[in-house]
Amino acid sequence: MKLKFFGILLVSLLAVAIFSGGMPGVSVAADVYLPIPGDNSVSQWVYTSTTATKGWTKLSAISKSVEINFGKDNYLLFNNNISGEGINVILRDKTIFPTNDSSSINGSFAQSVDPSPPHAYINHTNDWIVKPLSPVYTIVPSQTLTASNGPLPGYSFVSPSTITLKYNSNISDSYETVSVLYRIDDNSPWEILPGLVNSGSKTVTATFTTNGFGSYCVVNLDSDFNEFSQEIASVNWSQQYVQSLWNKGIMSQTGSNGYFGLVDGSSNEYNTTRGEFASMLVKGMRLPLASLDNNIFSDVTSASPSLFADGVHYEYYYPQWRENVCTAASYGLFNGIRTAGGSLVFQPTAPVTREQAAALIARAVNLKVDYMDDPSNDKVLTALKKMYADNDDYLNISVWARPYVLAVSKAKYMSGTLNATTKKYSFNPTDPITRAETAKIIQKVLKNKKLI
């Protein structure tokens, strides 16, 4: 965002910077140690800039166990009406470690952030095990150390940054169970942040969001969901993908009694709703969350119904699905559907078809798409015919979707189903994509983009 924009807003800009010798023209405060409630708690490395700065913003604290990289275009906004010295990184005492004890809000880990009905916390206490691998670090503007309800007004980040935490563990993370938990204050439940683990350096890097002040802790988050322990054939193959996305907070557990939520009581697979697909893409791609815009889709507003499909209240597990939908639309991932009356709808509870998923993935990763010149005789159609020739399946792919299907097939993000009799593949373009299939596709995309 341009510097002159902030001048118009008549705010002072405070940026946090650290270099071995400091930056010319930037005043840096001395170390400040201030107590907060709790035993053995200490804040370290408070930095101050009294001038508007851009770039060079990197903070390292607690013997380099915590590093925040604010990015070249980021600012720390400062309200003229509030005095303060910058940011504190606080080492907390062990009594606030996250656990799988849901008897109190202090130790609970929940996927819903709204404790009031109908979005009550779903008790998954016996479905997972949380083991802290690092201390809890709380990051706050310095003047909020005595505040009881989180940061005071005036501080926010213009764009997402990254936070890197060191952890202590001998595990290799081959099962991708190392996660970062975050909560905005001590009266909120812990939620999972998508993070990139470096098992060699024993660090994990997650997004330090626009409202990233709060507490962070690296944990080992393990589970044994019934779909996999009972080896349900239709979804057992998806364990590595589902586990990976769940451990990174990208895909939510929607089942109960030990089930992840891939199959119903009759072992029929659950499909992915459009609302869930949008939420998974936004979380996984680390897109800055947009505010809810009531003017984009007529069925995604503050007054729109809950995200309920196939007997599952997805509202519990993706409480910000409306904001995620608006974010996905603002990045051009979802275009919406025009009704006969002319209004634009999103249809959040409708299942995502396989050809729709192909278009969404191609847009998300910016794949090269060979658009068609002639729907009846085109190189795209010729290429699809070589890939998917079972019962002329390639002709069943919608004209608009054929370039996207070809792109994701070439990139090996999606593939067809082999007919054992004909030995040919079918893409099944109009079939709903299941939650298990979605996990595999999105996990492969995020791995390839080095986002997890």
From TrEMBL:
UniProt keyword Repeat present: yes
Alphabetic keyword roster: Repeat, Signal
Signal peptide: 1-29
SLH domain: residues covered: 225-295, 304-375, 388-452
One Pfam family matching this protein: SLH
The keyword Cell cycle belongs to this UniProt entry's keyword annotation: no
Protein known as: S-layer homology domain-containing protein
